[in-house]
Specification:
The protein is an alpha/beta fold and 368 residues long. 32% of the residues lie in helices and 12% in strands. The chain contains eleven helices and twelve strands. Helix 1 packs parallel to helix 10. The two termini are 33 Å apart.
């Protein structure tokens, strides 16, 4: 197969600063023989000039829509919420393969236009492990926000937690979180107790690592995974923790980790739930205490429940953009070996499996 043209589209989701390609990986693809084109973007963490400096041509923002049909469109977050048919092959996260809200309306745009979705979430290696994921940085950022919000509740009771913006690097984020924890500890007289479920995965590893780097004592970080949750929830240990961070990969119905009933315990300490997994509209969501996502502009959602302390949920579906440069560099590096196989897309297993999944999902919505 000839080398396809790879077209990196500009992200349109508000405050999304990450990029599926970095100047380094774009250049590596070009050196391998691919024609790489990058849309101009004012919100991408990498300046347009950084791509120009390594010889990557820039094209107008949004030009992917009118690009030739054989160009492969690469992105991260959802496409503009419009209804025109999709004629290209898209490599992106689209959140339509697990029956999320509105998935059929989005997916049917592909067969109408003759396009294909190769969803980044479902690109896997021979062992079934995702070839690239933002999980580590999602957990890292989610834990940071959870600790900041916990401290905010203690030091500024009754005040809404305000908007957050990306940090230039990990060191700046950790320094800020350390300061927040110190203020919270001075107010409460003890360290926060943090429970992470999915602690052995990429996402959970990131959450635990942030807690450690921010100075939370090891004994105050409860690291749970399949062994600890096999008995089935709801779990009192969550209710007795200050912060609960959900980092699991949800693939089927499981008992609830926490619900409105379990939150009614008279000795509840839980005041922050960070749902990094963010399966908000998934009918199998094991945290059925909220029903809408939050954003960096409005990071928290209050949970209506009796008695103190107040309880807030964080459910931001692009948490890694809190550290956009480092998250993008790690993700793009891991994705690169698969992108280099696009010239052999018809036979390369990672791509044939992804296309087969797409076809199965499309078949499920087409008239029989």
């Amino acid at each position: 197969m000839a080398y396809p043209v790879l077209h990196l589209r500009a992200e349109t989701k508000p405050l999304e600063h990450r990029s599926a390609l970095t100047p380094r990986t774009a250049r590596q693809l070009k050196d391998a023989g691919y024609d790489v084109r990058v849309e101009r973007s004012k919100q991408r963490i990498f300046d347009d000039s950084e791509f120009e400096a390594v010889g990557i041509p820039l094209v107008p923002e949004g030009s992917w829509i009118d690009a030739p049909e054989d160009h492969i469109i690469i992105g991260l977050k959802e496409l503009p919420d419009e209804d025109f048919p999709l004629k290209h092959t898209h490599i992106t996260f689209l959140h339509v393969f697990k029956n999320q809200k509105g998935w059929e309306r989005v997916l049917e745009r592909f067969p109408r236009g003759g396009g294909t979705l190769l969803d980044l979430e479902f690109l896997t290696d021979e062992r079934g492990r995702r070839v690239a994921a933002f999980g580590y940085h999602a957990g890292f950022a989610g834990a940071a926000l959870g600790l900041e919000i916990w401290a905010h509740q203690l030091t500024k009771p009754g005040q809404e937690f305000g908007a957050v913006t990306p940090y230039p690097n990990e060191a700046a984020l950790i320094e800020h979180v350390k300061g927040s924890i110190q203020m919270g500890v001075e107010k409460l007289g003890r360290q926060p107790r943090v429970l992470v479920i999915g602690a052995l995965g990429r996402c959970g590893t990131g959450a635990v690592e942030l807690c450690r780097k921010a100075g939370v004592p090891e004994e105050s970080i409860l690291k749970w995974d399949m062994e600890e949750t096999k008995k089935g929830g709801p779990f009192e240990e969550i209710v007795f923790s200050d912060i609960f961070i959900n980092c699991i990969y949800l693939s089927h119905k499981i008992p609830n980790f926490v619900d409105i009933g379990s939150l009614g315990h008279k000795d509840r300490q839980l005041s922050v739930v960070v749902d990094v997994s963010c399966d908000t509209t998934n009918p199998n969501n094991p945290i059925p205490i909220y029903n809408e996502n939050t954003t960096f502009t409005k990071p928290t959602l209050p949970v209506e429940i009796s008695g103190p302390p107040p309880l807030s949920v964080v459910a931001i579906d692009h948490l890694p953009t809190l550290l956009p440069r480092e998250a993008s560099e790690a993700f793009s590096k891991d994705l690169l070996p698969s992108l280099l196989q696009l010239k052999d897309r018809a036979t390369a297993r990672v791509w044939t499996d992804a296309e087969a999944l797409f076809k199965r999902k499309v078949a499920s919505i087409l008239p029989q």
